[in-house]
Amino acid sequence: MPKDWKDRLGVVYSTNPDFKYTVAETEEEDTLPPEKQKLVVSIDRRNRGGKQVTVVKGFAGSEDDLKALAKNLKQKCGVGGNAKDGEILIQGDLRDKVLDLLLQAGYSKTKKGN
Question: Does the residue 9 lie in any domain?
Fold first, then answer.
């Protein structure tokens, strides 16, 4: 089975002997510099079994840069968390600490939400 079989799940069979399946290249978004990022730090209590989660929304950039920022915040806060879909989730109510860490890292347009 070829390496890219997961990318070709939509194509079952082709009778053309010269057929070459091509995967559309997805362009990764360039990451804005920290001083141009407009991040919002808020708290979320919904659908979490009574637990509180600090949410950082509004990150514009690549998924790798988002995960690197999330890793940095999780390490400095000493808690677990998650990063996906342009959001960073940090376990617990750490809005003030996360906001201070982001401002120290150069994210000057960061603000506190609800």
Answer: no
Strand order in the sheet with 53-57: 81-84, 87-91, 53-57, 40-44, 111-112
Question: DSSP code of 62?
Answer: -
The sign one gets for the Cα dihedral 59, 65, 69, 75 is: positive
| Alpha helices, DSSP H, located in the chain | 63-77, 95-104
> How many other C-beta atoms can be found within 10 angstroms of the C-beta atom of residue 59?
24
In a domain, 21, yes or no: no
Q: Is the pLDDT of residue 75 over 60?
A: yes
Domains identified in the chain, total number: 1
Radius of gyration of the CA atoms of the chain, in A: 20
Instruction: Give the Å distances, CA to CA, from 82 to 21, 55, 86, 89, 90.
Output: 34, 10, 11, 5, 7
Which CATH number covers residue 42? 3.30.780.10
pLDDT digits (tens, 9 = 90+) for 15-35: 788 877 766 666 667 888 888
